[in-house]
Amino acid sequence: MADDVRLYMFECGHLKTQTQFIKMNQGMGEEYTVPVPWFAITHPKGTVVIDGGNAAEVATDPAGHWGDVAQVYEPLMEEDDACVPALQAAGIDPESVKYVVQSHLHLDHSGAVAAIDQFPNAQVVVTRTEYEYAHAPHWFCQAGYIQADFNKPGIDWMLLDESDDGYDLFGDGVIKLHRSPGHAVGHQSFEVTLPNGGPMLLTADAAYTMDHWNREALPGLIVSAIQVVESVDKLHRIADRANATVVTGHDPDAWPEFKQAPEYYD
């Protein structure tokens, strides 16, 4: 395993919403504000950006970029929170990015692919299932996919198939991609093994919060409740096997306990 590996945790502002949109059928109408995490991993073979948060345009024109969904998930975001300026502030050169890896392609996870022209050396890694669905989603999922972020020419896509589950991005055990559908049809989560800090499991939206992780709630937006439950069970097995620290996708209580960029884990 490479010794010179660092994991940076970034926050692309917050989403002001209601509890039932995060924890299904709970706290109807109660205000609930969640963070928008994303990640970067520096590696001797190149930098990896995971998701990238919201697109930069959301900071200046949320309704124009997201449409009506911005009324349900109101973004609280500054221009410096966007992926590229946040990386630069942490001392990471966008030209060093080899991979932009997508947990899925929902609007609060597509900030890096939306800025792909500023990552001239990057491939975008996503499951084939998610890629195909995002380009032609069912009506009830359409608002979650902002076509302007990812449906455009010039993107160098790497599409992972079912047989690629557990894909080892650099072939050295540092970053493994685990399929975890349910919230989105082609969702994947990330096992990151650091040379000093050990394994960390980034669930992304397979588990929004520790309530989801602890099997006490379902996410507010799902395509399959059965797959959500099966994916959490699968991720528990991975975390238990590796004795991994679990980082959920949008937990307002757990997230502040982690180091924020420019600090890092190594």
Account of the protein in words:
- With 266 residues, the protein is an alpha/beta fold.
- It has one domain (6-257): Metallo-beta-lactamase, Chain A (4-Layer Sandwich), CATH 3.60.15.10.
- It has eight helices and twelve strands.
- The strands form two sheets. Strands 4-1-2-3-5-6-7 form a seven-stranded mixed sheet.
- The two termini are 12 Å apart.
- The mean pLDDT is 96.
Task: Describe how the helices and strands are arranged.
Blueprint: E1 6-18, E2 31-42, E3 47-50, H1 62-66, H2 69-72, E4 74-76, H3 83-89, E5 97-101, H4 111-114, E6 123-127, H5 128-135, H6 147-150, E7 157-160, E8 167-168, E9 175-179, E10 188-194, E11 198-204, H7 210-213, H8 225-242, E12 245-248
Parallel strand pairs: 3-5, 5-6, 6-7, 11-12
Antiparallel strand pairs: 1-2, 1-4, 2-3, 8-9, 9-10, 10-11
Key traits:
Metallo-beta-lactamase, Chain A; five-stranded mixed beta sheet; single chain; alpha/beta; 266 residues
